[in-house]
Structures are given as structure tokens and as C-alpha cells.
Amino acid sequence: MGRKVLLVYGGFSAERAVSISSKDDIYQALTSKGYEVIEHDLTDIWNFLQVLKEEKPDVVFNGLYGNWGEDGEIQAFLDMLQIPYTHSGLYASAAGMNKYLTLLIAQSLGIKTAAAEKTDIATYLQKGSAIPYPHVVKPVSDGSSVGVYIIKKPTDTAKIKLSEYKDEILVERYIPGQELTVMCLLNKAYVVTELRAKNEFYDYNAKYTSGLTEHILPAEIPEDVAEKAKDYAVRLHMALGCNTLSRCDFRYNPDDGVVLLEINTNPGLTKLSLVPEQAKYAGISFADLCDILIKNATCRKR
Asked: Which of 36, 79, 273, 274 has the highest local Cβ count within 10 Å?
């Protein structure tokens, strides 16, 4: 494999700021491994195409999050151009970003999920939901807990910001208990982290604001619960066909057991992110993690 890497970041989604905040650490990690790294802030697809033509990178490091970055769009574009890229491909990315489809796939694998229904925000606000209170309202396809609300009673819908919704939403039974997360790297899960957020739940601010969430590593849960969460993470990662890296989020309480919330096929790589922390626990440095992603970069072959 060649040594020129195009690190693409920024993008068009609600997670643009998150992507920008992670790119310096990724750049430093890759250069420390001897790669020639060209940074590109994705704001215009035609300009991106021109950069690809001029630079002719051996690999694109996908530092994009959210829609257009981890939902299959950029993956399909690079597949057509036959340029290898990091993280998962078109199909795994599209399935993983669609939370409702993820739940259906998980259920087919015997992975426990919360009761849920797919609808749209207008219908929900007019007619409510068959899912009893408390329940969670969130976009079917988005990340970083953008547009996620816990609705405990009908009047709570007043706090919903309609600008955060474009298409379908998912209404899901609220699962109380401990928030857990598991990294899967090269088809192996190493450890479970518990997230203790000072906010009501592990929302956007809790994820990206220092001091708002305590990371308990390893999670303070029974061993069989940890093994269940790790098993679920690996099974879903492999069933979706994820490439190299993913992260699954769960809720746990003794009554409901381990319940899947979602999978992230391009999990965050900021200083506050969970994957670098779990990798470090497993003896894998951030630079080594980025190197593993580069060495396993691929694209759909003609």
C-alpha cells in the first residue's frame, strides 16, 4: 500500500464541528506513522473530486461523521472512483446509520432491542405514539445524539426542535439503567465502558463537553452482562459487514437485561471519544489505531 493519505473531514452534517475537532489528532497520529497526509475540509463535492484527481491518494481516511459521511454516501462515491477508504463500506454504513433497520437486523440475530415504531415528526406530534411513556424520540438516520429527546409526558413534546428532523423518526421505549458502550476492532470486543452523564442522558453536550460524563472503564457490571454486551457488539458488527471498527451502545438493568440502542460504523475519534479510550485499555495507542484503519482500508472492487 502507498503512503499518501487524504484525511477528509468537516462535511455537511450536524456533526461537522465534531469532525473538525478530531482531525488534528488523526493528522498527528498518521504522520507519526510515516504517512504523507493531506487534509481536506469537505465543503464542495466538485472541489473534493478535483483534490482527489490532483493528489491521487492511496487511501482516504474518512474523518466525517453523520449524514453524508457515515451513511454510505461518501463510501459509494469513493467506490465508484476505486479509491480505498477507512471504516465500513456502503452497505454496512447505510444499514448502521438507519436505526430502525439496525433494530430489525439485531432482532433477527437474537439481540435484544427496545419496542419501537417508525413514523414522522408531524404524525407523532398530532397523534402521539403506541409506545407508552416514557419513550425516546430520535431521527431514524443521524448520529451523536442529535435530535434525541426523552419524552416522559405529552407536554414534553414542547421541547422538541423541529429543525433537527428531516424525514422519519423513531419512537422507542425508554430503557432505564446503565449506559454501556463496546468497541469492536477487527471482529474483537475488548471491554465495556459505562457512561455516567451529568445530563439526563448521554446527549450531544455530554459526549463532547469535558467533565459532563464520567467514563467507568471497565464498567461496574456483572461479568456475564459484560460478556453479553461484547458478544452482541461482535455479532452485529459482523452481520452488517463492518470493516475494521465499530462501536455499539447499550442500556442495561436487571429486568430488561442488555438492550441495544445503536451501532456506530464510524465512531468518534476526538480526545473525549470512547473508542480511543477502549483501544488504549487494550494496549493499542491512538496512532496504532489510526494505522490499523489505514492498513485495512478498502473499497468495493469492480
From this structure: 274
